[in-house]
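Structure first, sequence second, as always.
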C-alpha cells in the first residue's frame, strides 16, 4: 500500500525537478523554508495559553524554566529570513532594472504576495474579536488577538526594508550594527527612555538584510567570511549574555524585564550574525542535499505557501486550544508550563497543531498565489498547476 502511495509522489517530485532551472540556488529556498518553520515550531513550543477560570492568558515555559533558554536559539530564525530577503530583493531589483521594469511595478509585485493573505486574517479576527467580546473577558480577547496578529509586525518591517532596497543595496552592515550598539548603550548604560529601543526594530533587522544584499553582490563567497560571522557573532553573543547580563533567551518571555526581541537588542543582532554565518556555511551541503527530487519538492512547497503558514500558525494553535477546552484543562494545552512534563505533553500536541494549520492552509492558501506571466509558447506547453508553475511561482 505504501509503495503505491509513494509512487505518484516520487513522480511529481521528478517532474518538479525537471521543471526547475539549473541556475536556481536551491540553498536559498532551503534557508527560507528553515526560517519559516523555525518560527512556527518556536511559537508552538514556547507559547502557552493558560486557562484560569473563565479567562485565558499567555505564558511561556522559559519563564518558569529559564534553563531552557538555549532551546530558543534553535527556533529564533528571523535573521536568516532577513538574510535571504535581502539577497532575493537585491537580485530581483537588479533583474527588474535590466529588463526595464519600473521600481513601482517591481515593488507592487513583491508586496502584493506579502499582503494579499493578510486581509483574510484581519477580517476573520475582527469578526472573532467582536463575537468574543460578547461573552469573554476583555483580557482574554486581548491575549488571543495579540497572538493572532503578532506575525504582522514582522511583515511591516520586512515590507519597509523591501521598499527601501534601492537605498540599501550598497549599505555596509556595520552602519546599522553601530546604531544598535549606540541605542543599547543609551538605553541600558545611560538611562535613556525605553522607547528609544524601538529604533532597533529597523536597525536590528537591517543588519542581516544588508548582509543578504552583500551576498547578492558576491561579497560573502568563500568559507572565511562566513566563518568569521559565525565565530564573531557567537563570541559577541556569549560576552553580552555572560558579562553584560543580556537575557539568554532569544525570544520574548512574558514577565521578563528585558526582551532580546521586542525590540531587538545588540545580543539579538550578534546572535543573528552567527546564524547568518552558519547559513552561509551550509550553502554547499544544502545544494547537494537538494539534488534529490523529493527533498527539493518538499522545500519548494514550503516556500510556495510560506506566507500562509506564517500568518495562520498562531490561529491554528489557538483553535486547537479552544477546542480542547471542551474536554477540560488538558496538560500541555491549558496548564501552566512550569515543569518538564508540560514540554513532553506539548510535543504530543504538535501533530494536532499541524492538522489545524493544514485546515487553515486549505481555506486560505489560494490568496498567496499570483498569476505567472509566461509567453504564449509556454502557455500552450504547460497547463496551470503543473510542476513548472510551482517552480515559476516560488520566488528565487
Amino acid at each position: 500500500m505504501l509503495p503505491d502511495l509513494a509512487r505518484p509522489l516520487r513522480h511529481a517530485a521528478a517532474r518538479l525537478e525537471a521543471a526547475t532551472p539549473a541556475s536556481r540556488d536551491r540553498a536559498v529556498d532551503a534557508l527560507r523554508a528553515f526560517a519559516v518553520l523555525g518560527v512556527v515550531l518556536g511559537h508552538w513550543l514556547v507559547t502557552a495559553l493558560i486557562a484560569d477560570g473563565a479567562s485565558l492568558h499567555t505564558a511561556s515555559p522559559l519563564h518558569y524554566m529559564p534553563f531552557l533558554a538555549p532551546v530558543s536559539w534553535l527556533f529564533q530564525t528571523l535573521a536568516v529570513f532577513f538574510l535571504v530577503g535581502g539577497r532575493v530583493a537585491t537580485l530581483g531589483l537588479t533583474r527588474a532594472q535590466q529588463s526595464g521594469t519600473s521600481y513601482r511595478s517591481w515593488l507592487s509585485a513583491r508586496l502584493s504576495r506579502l499582503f494579499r493573505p493578510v486581509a483574510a486574517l484581519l477580517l476573520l479576527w475582527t469578526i472573532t474579536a467582536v463575537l468574543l467580546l460578547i461573552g469573554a473577558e476583555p483580557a482574554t480577547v486581548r491575549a488571543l488577538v495579540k497572538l493572532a496578529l503578532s506575525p504582522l509586525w514582522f511583515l511591516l518591517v520586512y515590507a519597509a526594508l523591501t521598499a527601501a532596497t534601492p537605498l540599501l543595496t550598497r549599505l555596509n552592515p556595520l552602519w546599522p550594527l553601530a546604531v544598535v550598539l549606540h541605542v543599547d548603550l543609551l538605553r541600558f548604560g545611560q538611562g535613556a527612555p525605553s522607547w528609544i529601543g524601538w529604533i532597533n526594530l529597523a536597525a536590528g533587522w537591517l543588519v542581516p538584510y544588508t548582509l543578504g544584499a552583500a551576498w547578492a553582490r558576491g561579497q560573502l563567497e568563500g568559507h572565511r567570511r562566513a566563518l568569521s560571522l559565525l565565530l564573531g557573532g557567537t563570541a559577541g553573543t556569549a560576552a553580552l549574555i555572560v558579562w553584560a547580563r543580556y537575557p539568554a533567551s532569544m525570544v520574548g518571555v512574558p514577565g521578563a524585564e528585558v526582551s532580546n526581541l521586542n525590540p531587538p537588542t545588540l545580543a539579538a543582532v550578534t546572535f543573528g550574525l552567527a546564524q547568518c554565518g552558519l547559513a552561509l556555511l551550509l550553502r554547499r551541503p544544502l545544494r547537494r542535499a537538494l539534488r534529490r527530487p523529493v527533498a527539493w519538492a518538499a522545500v519548494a512547497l514550503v516556500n510556495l505557501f510560506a506566507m500562509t503558514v506564517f500568518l495562520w500558525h498562531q490561529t491554528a494553535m489557538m483553535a486547537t486550544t479552544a477546542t480542547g477546552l471542551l474536554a477540560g484543562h488538558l496538560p500541555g494545552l491549558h496548564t501552566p508550563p512550569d515543569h518538564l512534563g508540560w514540554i513532553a505533553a506539548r510535543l504530543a500536541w504538535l501533530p494536532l497543531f499541524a492538522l489545524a494549520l493544514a485546515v487553515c492552509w486549505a481555506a486560505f492558501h489560494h490568496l498567496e498565489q499570483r498569476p505567472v506571466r509566461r509567453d504564449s509558447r509556454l502557455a500552450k506547453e504547460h497547463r496551470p498547476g503543473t510542476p513548472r508553475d510551482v517552480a515559476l511561482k516560488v520566488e528565487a
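Margin note: Strands lie at 48-52, 55-59.
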